[in-house]
Amino acid sequence: MLKTFKIGGVHPAENKLSASKAIEVLTLPKTVFIPVGQHIGAPAEAIVKKGDKLMVGQLIAKSSGFVSANIHSSVSGTVKKVETGPDTSGYPKMGIYIDVEDDIWDEQIDRSAELKSEINLDSAAILAKIQNAGIVGLGGATFPTHVKLMPPKGMKAEVLLINGVECEPYLTSDHRMMLEHGEELIVGVKLLMLALNVDKATIGIENNKQDAIAKMSGLVAGHKNISVVPLKVKYPQGGEKQLIKAVTGREVPSGALPISVGAVVTNIATTYAVYEAVQKNKPLFERVVTVTGKTVKNPSNFKVRIGTTVSELIEAAGGLPENCGKIINGGPMMGKAFANTEIPVTKGTSGILIMPEKEAKRSETMPCIRCSRCVSVCPMGLEPFLLMTLSEKQMWEGAENEKVMDCIECGSCSYTCPANRPLLDFIRLGKVKVGALIRSRKP
Predict the structure, then answer these.
(1) Owning domain of residue 241
(2) pLDDT digit string (tens) for 177-216?
(3) Structure pTM?
(4) Which of the listed residues 361, 389, 423 is the one where a domain comes to its end?
(5) Contacts (Cβ under 8 Å, ≥6 apart) of 232
């Protein structure tokens, strides 16, 4: 019987339209805008100025705290200006504009296709390389990876979980990474195990990716401490807490982090970035992005430089369909709409979903009928209808008591609501307000 988490979950249509499309390298843009805040935590601080000449992989913004990440140039050329530009939400954020002139890479980066499987570094050296390379969680959370790999005092990692679930509908970039870069991923897993000082790792993959399961299972056959676990197809199987429960049976307590039960979870794309950083001296300045949608001419997976505009990716996939109703940053369940297409790809851009107008249009909101569907599908065991009401009425302490901060924003409640109520919208608002309330109490 396939493993899965116990509480809640839904089964949205998979729509993996680009699963069979090999990763393509996108043509270099003429100019890029690279935000200095592409991660959870403090934004990096720019260390370049107008007129500076840059190489690919050169450090351009230095992390400004423990929970922060370095930013590197994705292109070679000249710094046009250092000022605000639109981030993925459309709001102005500080960043670096670069005019692309050629493609000269930092000479320390190993650009060969040769697999480097021999590991000659200890835990501290691996962590230092990951930190210097600006690696963050590429599954969407963008939490600095070096911080995740340094458990708080009194806690110890016991198992490493590699998240190959990719349960969000439409997205296929991790699937393609497993098929095309499986060997590198295994080295990445070993590096993460060394960094954490753990002797066990498990790669969780949903059962709708049989080719990836077969590929990765074959690759781990000679590694007794690394295993592949096929998982039942159920959303949100890729949530950290859901994956931990499915694979290990351990349950992360309310308000706690995965490390509290001895687990550390890292996504497929992040694991590959770790391999490149440690074995190839390559900072994180490009990533694979899925561009897809039912009306998209050529749904694809592109390797793209950070700072490239969303419009260039859409054009490479066949252009914007006439009936476009919304462009989503990510997938349909957890993604958020782009304000416009002249927004840069960042480290957290896993996918671009173009939704036709008919599907993008919200249905009329009706009164709650107390059907409890939102409660039955919530993977965190919460009461979404109540959390929405408390947020709507600005009863923030009540929302805190009902554990609004435990919400993982998976969208299962909104997906299943027959009254079309904007449950997740109000719960997200509640999390912002309650989070501010909690921070205000700290001395």
Answers:
(1) 1-24+105-361
(2) 999 999 999 999 999 999 999 999 999 999 999 999 999 9
(3) 0.96
(4) 361
(5) 2, 3, 4, 206, 207, 246
